[in-house]
Design brief:
Elements (H helix, E strand, L loop, with lengths): L2 H29 L4 H20 L4 H27 L7 H10 L3 H19 L1 H7 L8 H29 L19 H17 L10 H13 L2 H12 L1 H9 L11
Helix pairs in contact: 1-2, 1-5, 2-3, 2-5, 3-7, 4-5, 6-8, 7-8, 8-9, 10-11
Length: 264
């Protein structure tokens, strides 16, 4: 690896993501809705991918494939989140409203810091991208083809799960009910599972490059966040609060994460 070039690419990415999040914070301050941070957290990954495509020294087809994967996935998820958040732009999501209340008088200043930490997390999670973008080997590895194939499965799976849930919610007769159709029949969180699988695919892709094993950091962090912090725990707590016994029954009969395993 060319450490100087890598350092420069990281700095470019940090500056770009932090500037974007600073502007998003200004918008969120104006509309009093921190939920918009989720949209641009997703969009920041394509920004990093484009920086790497333009400036990284990797074999051109490798950069093209990597950039296409990250841009498609980031834009899809970001646009999906935007569709959800923009529907209630002037009504902040409960989790952010709760955080704002806990932070009190210093909420906006702390929220700015939170937005900047999100920008830094973008760069940290992009470790597989940086590793692959420094690989100048003039041919694609079977591991890179395998990573791309796994990526396609994960992106399609997450898109299907998101669409199934959106369709369920759109039907007014399902109000107060638990979505247990399609992939949701087998897992309570198939969208999270496929999101994690996507980061595993980036790890597999990076294994073809020097120091590729370091890329395991990204799917490990995502798995921890989804299962222990902001993903599943918060979602299930909210579902128990709003759906009660119906969701408890759903918990008893479904896998929490992996969609192809069903209890009972």
């Amino acid at each position: 690896m060319d450490n100087t070039s890598l350092f420069t690419l990281v700095i470019y990415s940090v500056i770009a993501c932090c500037v974007i999040m600073a502007l998003v914070w200004l918008w969120s301050y104006k509309i009093k809705n921190a939920g918009v941070v989720d949209i641009f957290w997703s969009y920041n990954f394509p920004v990093i991918a484009i920086i790497l495509f333009l400036f990284a020294p990797a074999y051109e087809p490798r950069k093209e494939l990597l950039c296409a994967m990250v841009v498609i996935a980031g834009l899809r998820l970001g646009t999906h989140l935007a569709t959800r958040v923009l529907k209630h732009l002037h009504e902040e999501e409960p989790r952010y409203a709760h955080i704002r209340k806990e932070w009190g008088a210093n909420a906006e200043l702390k929220m700015f810091g939170f937005f900047q930490l999100q920008a830094i997390s973008n760069v940290l999670l992009a470790i597989p991208f940086f590793i692959s973008a420094m690989n100048t080997t003039a041919e694609l590895s079977p591991l890179e083809y395998a990573g791309a194939a796994l990526w396609a499965i994960s992106v399609i799976g997450e898109a299907v799960a998101d669409r199934q849930l959106a369709s369920f919610k759109k039907d007014s007769s399902n109000k107060g009910q638990v979505c247990d159709t399609g992939l949701w029949h087998y897992s309570r969180h198939p969208n999270y599972f496929f999101e994690w699988l996507m980061w595993v695919s980036y790890f597999v892709f990076a294994l073809a490059s020097p120091y590729g094993c370091l890329a395991i950091i990204s799917p490990a962090i995502i798995l921890y966040l989804l299962t222990k912090v902001t993903g599943i725990p918060a979602t299930e707590q909210q579902s128990l609060k709003t759906k009660g016994e119906k969701f408890k029954e759903y918990q008893r009969t479904t896998s929490v994460f992996v969609p192809w395993f069903k209890k009972g």
